[in-house]
Each structure stands twice: as structure tokens, then as C-alpha cells.
């Protein structure tokens, strides 16, 4: 496992979560029906979040399957 690559992918996952989770999480108590533009924006945000998750998961699996990274000689 390439721990550096795994750590970087995990950081990307956290950044993705901070960026999109408030946009894609259903809002409690929303009594009004969203208009067409709001629905389109929500779909766009959800699609971007899904694609970002796919990319991060791919990187996580690649880091797990990768051989162990060599130790940093500067440490």
C-alpha cells in the first residue's frame, strides 16, 4: 500500500465533503417546491459530487493496490 498516496486521496475526500455536502444534503423543513432552476442546480451539484467521489475512490483503491512507497531518506 502506498500510504502517501492513500493519505492524499483521503485529504481530497475531506475537501470534497466540505465543498459539496451542504449542497447535496436534503434540507429539513423545506415546505416549498423547488423551481426548475433550483432542481437543475441541485442535479449539477450532485453529479459533480458523485464524479468527485468516484475519482477519490479510484485513487484510494489504486493506493491500496500499489506497492509500498519507499521510505523518505530525508526523515
Could you give a short description of this structure?
The protein contains 2 helices and no strands.
Protein architecture, described:
The protein is mainly alpha-helical. It has a domain at 1-25. It has two helices and no strands. The chain has helices at 3-24, 36-65. The radius of gyration is 18 Å and the shape is elongated.
Q: Which runs of at least 5 residues are low in confidence (pLDDT < 50)? A: none
Order of helices and strands: HH
| Global morphology | elongated
How much is the average pLDDT? Answer: 82
- What share of residues is helical? 55-70%
Strand content: under 5%
Number of helical stretches of at least 4 residues: 2
Which structural class matches the secondary elements? mainly alpha
Number of strands: 0
Our measurement of the CA-to-CA distance between the termini, rounded to an integer number of angstroms, reads 19 Å
Radius of gyration: 18 Å
The biggest beta sheet reads: none
Amino acid at each position: 500500500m502506498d500510504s502517501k498516496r492513500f493519505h492524499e486521496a483521503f485529504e481530497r475526500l475531506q475537501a470534497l465533503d466540505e465543498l459539496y455536502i451542504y449542497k447535496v444534503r436534503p434540507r429539513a423543513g423545506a415546505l416549498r417546491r423547488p423551481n426548475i432552476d433550483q432542481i437543475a442546480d441541485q442535479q449539477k451539484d450532485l453529479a459533480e459530487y458523485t464524479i468527485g467521489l468516484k475519482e477519490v475512490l479510484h485513487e484510494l483503491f489504486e493506493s491500496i493496490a500499489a506497492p509500498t512507497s519507499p521510505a523518505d531518506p530525508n526523515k
